[in-house]
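Much of our argument rests on the idea that a fold can be written as discrete symbols. Part of our work consisted of pairing the sequence of a single chain with a tokenised description of its backbone. The amino acid sequence and the backbone structure tokens for this protein are reproduced below.
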Amino acid sequence: MEKAGVSNVTLDQVRQARSVTEVVCVQNRYAVGYRTDDARKVVGYCAAAADRDPAGR
């Protein structure tokens, strides 16, 4: 698999997926009712990853 998108994942699951393939999309619920600490961690992790490499390479 060259690239993948993931959904409804925890931070650990995002990290695990990135260790296997390039993750190009993370789609999690982020509505007010779903903003758990883990959801915030996933958003922060993805934002930091994009800042490090905006082209996704």
